[in-house]
Amino acid sequence: MYVFDCALMKYPNTGLFAFSDNLARCLARHAEEQKEKMGFYVPEKYIGRWGSGVSYMKLSALHKIYLPARGIDVWHAAYQRSRYLPPKGTRMVLTVHDLNFLYDKPAYKHAKHLRWVQNRVDRADRIVAISEYARKDIEAHVDLKGKKVDVIYNGLNFFDGDIAAPERVPQRPFLFSVGTVLPKKNFHVLPALLQDNDYELIIAGNRSSYEQQIIEEARKYGVEDRVFIAGPVSEPVKYWYIKNCLAFLFPSLAEGFGLPVIEAMYYQKPVFLSDHTSLPEIGSRYAFYFDHDFDRDLMRRKFTETMAEFGKGGSKIEKLKEEMKIHAESFSWERTARKYFNIYRELASR
Asked: Percent of the chain at pLDDT above 70?
């Protein structure tokens, strides 16, 4: 049996939750189609989430000390710092999402975090990165001891439910961003974009004290009354924001992939990104990029010019919108699941 570690689903409204949930759904479907034994290691409330044709193993804090692995041929650790590892002798796949600590932690902390990753890499039989950028970071900073790093992109999250308006519906045209409200997301550079227009800025995601820096920046530009930090939102509300926003903004300093980027592209919204870490790889030529150093005047000028062009429409913009949607659809969780399954089979056959 193959087991996929979904322990990080205990943290809702995060990219790691979305990764685990979407990949698990497609792995379960593929296992049933191929009549293979598939299991999921989950918090208790998610037992049964992907149907009855697969197995479920309940997460326990005791498993940080010893995780029983009888009958498990391949264990898939879904995160580079997973605390839940099978005993030696069980084949293991490790997904590395990023080495973001190299970009958002002080240099004196890098060695500690690298030791964690090195330990997991040493334990793994196969290593997967979620972008070419992440792969290059791993190869540059981790001793792979000859192990190959595969790149398997994440997929596009299709929401097939009913979208739902938030309790506070914006009364003006609005710009949207989403992500845990932490300094590495760099949200505080965005309020400057509200000068000389009547837009609102909505930021959704788990909150932290960093939001004070965002508000202070908004106050500096006299736009505090048009910046709203919504906190964590449900998927129906998140997709309402994406569907109805004027533009999607993602100025992050450190991303292994950036799932919201392709979600916004699927809805054919103009997408403004930083040019740091993996974002140019994922956004490609279908996104617009902020000044590398986030010079507010340059950012605002680029944003204003691009929004004016989008507002005019025309064949060039319509072509770009269609290309954006096609680009987003090229990221498929079904394809991602098949690629992981091929690795599981290869390891199990050794």
From this structure: 100
67 with 83, same domain: the answer is yes
CA distance 94 to 125: 8
* SS3 category, 149: strand
For 256, which DSSP code?
S
Following DSSP, what letter does each residue of 81-138 receive, concatenated?
T-S--PPTTSEEEEEE---THHHHS-GGGHHHHHHHHHHHHHH-SEEEESSHHHHHHH
Q: Are residues 339 and 286 part of one domain? A: no
- One-letter amino acid at 87 equals P
3-state DSSP helix/strand/coil % of the chain, to nearest 5: 45, 15, 40
CATH at residue 46: 3.40.50.2000
The total domain count for the chain is: 2
Q: Are residues 7 and 149 in the same domain?
A: yes
Q: Is the pLDDT of residue 161 over 90?
A: no
- Establish if 168 belongs to a structural domain: no
Whether residue 163 lies inside any domain: the answer is no
Query: What is the DSSP-derived secondary structure letter of residue 80?
Result: T
Verify that 126 and 183 share a domain, yes or no: no
**Res 6 pLDDT > 90:** yes
List, for residues 228-257, the tens digit of each pLDDT value: 999 999 999 999 999 999 999 999 999 999
User: If we measure between CA atoms, which residue out of 338, 322, 346, 345 comes closest to residue 153?
Assistant: 338
State the average pLDDT over residues 303-314: 94
Task: For the chain, report the end-to-end CA distance as a whole number of angstroms.
Answer: 14
- Give yes or no: residues 137 and 203 share one domain: no
Domain assignment of residue 31, given as a range? 2-155+332-348
What is the helix (H) or strand (E) element at residue 177, kind and residue range?
Answer: strand 174-178
Q: Residue 175 is encoded by which pair of tokens?
A: 């710009």
Residue that is written with structure tokens 């109805």 in the block? 244
105-127 pLDDT tens trace: 899 999 999 999 999 999 999 99
Whole-number pLDDT of residue 338: 97
Q: What is the largest CA-CA distance in the chain?
A: 64
Q: Please count the residues of the chain.
A: 350
